[in-house]
Q: What sequence folds into this?
């Protein structure tokens, strides 16, 4: 068995991500942009809404014309006209004047607030009674209140949610520059692994890892490319690795949980052009036997064979690299507070990641650790998140408040 | 102005969802199934892994052969053979015997545990020294430990995450039945609304709502279909509503924030075939002027015109209907605990939904309310979640622990 070079801690491993360049950008239509990452800053070409806009149905007036008005002592204003929706009014409002306006309408020049229709009484075609004293700015938004011309509305690196799509629509971006989806090659290894459409003979299992990793990649904005299953043959393994490396932005090889297969994988990665092994062992559990090679400008990962280990390493270690490749501004994963339903022991010299189920009870979440080895996919299916146990902590106690990283 | 029929509370509105049928199911390939909803229960056709499997490199033995063994007093076992990866071993293990085995290998009949190679010393080709006493089941998984034949692995209605894709691969599901994506029609209304590729003249604004709602629909597994912008014309509005209704599983109409446009929308919805207004006003803020019509077997929503109102109503009210349509088992939205950075007042007679930004500081989240009216899209862009203020509560205080619903 080859020795681990030197087991590295997570932060050291994550710091390697800056060695790898971002993917290029491409143009997409706004309606294809959800979940993509902005490759440019978005600057507003104009004010939004672009005009003083009523947010209530009523009368546009000068606030000063209403000062002191009340039910008992109304102000009487002259109706100067009506604002047509979607049109600039062809008149202005002076002291003592009012204009009929509907929600969304443009305030005439001179008007600085809207009196809600509920606080008015229309006496006749030319006179309205105002029952409330208004402050300037009431029941309207100013022309640049949503967005100001020249303002940086969204920063490069932002992943687009529905609300970002909304503000891009507001700014007139029918198409925009986003980072291309990274292509990530997937190779499974092991003489015991068979394609999922095969009924495995005794001693064999279906290729779970390729499909679980492909789904994780898709979930994180990348495009998986399958390079199949490779058995215990150096020649085959090297050929597959080389092809995947040429055609992809990053490669994940998994399986080969036996020492022999792991050694073969390490040999193949070392033999690739311009290859340098950056990581051979991470102080986490599960996931210690993880390899990261830098092959030219590309990251080549050797993930553990046990499916839950491979998935945890992906979530905790590979994902930040992928975000970096995608140009995404790093965002710390969301954490939910929960109380542990049982004691958890720490792992000597490693950060432990424990799969937990979240149960909401009496107004708070409880995190219930899921028992079972990391080779069992059902332990991931039952899990809602991961709880990290620091290597320097003594362990965590039942009832203790912990942070759950959602998966 | 037409009266609201009767403002209903959220729970009453949500209970209407069972009036609408689920969409049909369709077959998808496993690698297209991420995020889709299972239309069938998934039952395992066989045990997984299907054989007793080593989880460490070492020797497969009968635990009883090692009882009492230690460094000082090792047990000496006879090496009966080696297990080839991916093959059923052609021999069995009796008392006093051992078989070389690698991680992932199949234990020979008779063996009931694996001794890690680190706890052994191979004396010669036929003898191995065992330095530890082993319990049955150590360093292996049993043949049905991950999944048992006939077990219901995943239930109908489950939305598929990467780990569910993994277990489906393990069970050999190269394709599966999922619910079809609901088609949801989107109509924007208002004389002031222009397409996003237009530079709006004074008094006009771009159609933010259609694009923000389309993104929300995509984010929730539906397929949006745009039916354009309709101005203040009953005839046009009715024609658009009718077309959208025929071609879609559900329709969202938004905009028309003025009373006139709202009345027109209500008239159009009432005039549709087999139409019945179920909801005309919900006791929430923002979002009170929401309409829900049942048109035959389809839900037709009249959403508020202000974009933040429309989005909040979508998230809080429409989404559960969509989940129901998609066949998804209802899952309560995830809530993150956070402390308020300022006091919030409650709204008389309505549940308030306040947009908040989440800030992680000193090990806990703070929820910072975002100021600004519901017509402003930037208030949604700055928000990470919503805090609900119950109508019966006096208000929430600065520093109080609240639950944030992520958006």
A:
């Amino acid at each position: 068995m080859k020795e681990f070079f030197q087991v590295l801690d997570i932060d050291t491993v994550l710091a390697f991500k800056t060695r790898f360049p971002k993917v290029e950008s491409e143009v997409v239509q706004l309606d294809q942009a959800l979940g993509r990452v902005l490759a440019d800053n978005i600057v507003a070409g104009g004010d939004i809404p672009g005009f003083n806009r009523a947010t209530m149905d009523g009368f546009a007036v000068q606030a000063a014309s209403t000062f002191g008005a009340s039910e008992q002592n109304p102000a009487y204003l002259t109706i100067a006209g009506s604002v047509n929706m979607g049109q600039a009014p062809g008149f202005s409002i002076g002291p003592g004047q009012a204009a009929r306006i509907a929600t969304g309408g443009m305030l005439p020049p001179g008007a600085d607030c809207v009196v809600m229709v509920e606080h008015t009484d229309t006496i006749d075609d030319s006179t309205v009674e105002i029952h409330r004293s208004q402050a300037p700015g009431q029941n309207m938004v100013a022309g640049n209140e949503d967005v100001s011309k020249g303002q940086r509305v969204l920063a490069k690196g932002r992943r687009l949610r529905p609300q970002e799509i909304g503000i891009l629509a507001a700014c007139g971006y029918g198409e925009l520059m986003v980072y291309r989806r990274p292509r990530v090659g997937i190779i499974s290894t092991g003489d015991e692994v068979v394609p999922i459409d095969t009924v495995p003979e005794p001693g064999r299992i279906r290729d779970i890892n390729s499909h679980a990793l492909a789904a994780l990649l898709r979930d994180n904005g990348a495009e998986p490319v399958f390079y199949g299953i490779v058995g215990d043959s150096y020649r085959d393994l090297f050929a597959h690795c080389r092809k995947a490396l040429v055609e992809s932005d990053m490669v994940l090889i998994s399986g080969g949980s036996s020492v022999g297969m792991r050694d073969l994988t390490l040999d193949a990665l070392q033999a690739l052009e311009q290859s340098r092994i950056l990581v051979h062992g991470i102080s986490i559990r599960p996931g210690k036997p993880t390899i990261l090679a830098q092959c030219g400008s590309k990251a080549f990962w050797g993930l553990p064979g046990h499916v839950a280990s491979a998935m945890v390493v992906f979530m905790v270690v590979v994902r930040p690299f992928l975000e970096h490749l995608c140009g995404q501004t790093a965002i710390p994963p969301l954490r939910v507070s929960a109380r542990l339903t049982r004691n958890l022991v720490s792992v000597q010299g490693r950060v432990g990641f424990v799969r937990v189920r979240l149960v909401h009870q009496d107004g708070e979440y409880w995190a219930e650790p899921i028992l079972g080895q990391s080779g069992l996919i059902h332990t991931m299916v039952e899990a809602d998140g991961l709880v990290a146990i620091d290597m320097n902590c003594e362990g965590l106690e039942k009832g203790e408040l912990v942070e759950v990283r959602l998966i």
The first helix of chain B runs from residue 10 to 15. The mean pLDDT of chain B is 95. The radius of gyration of chain B is 31 Å.
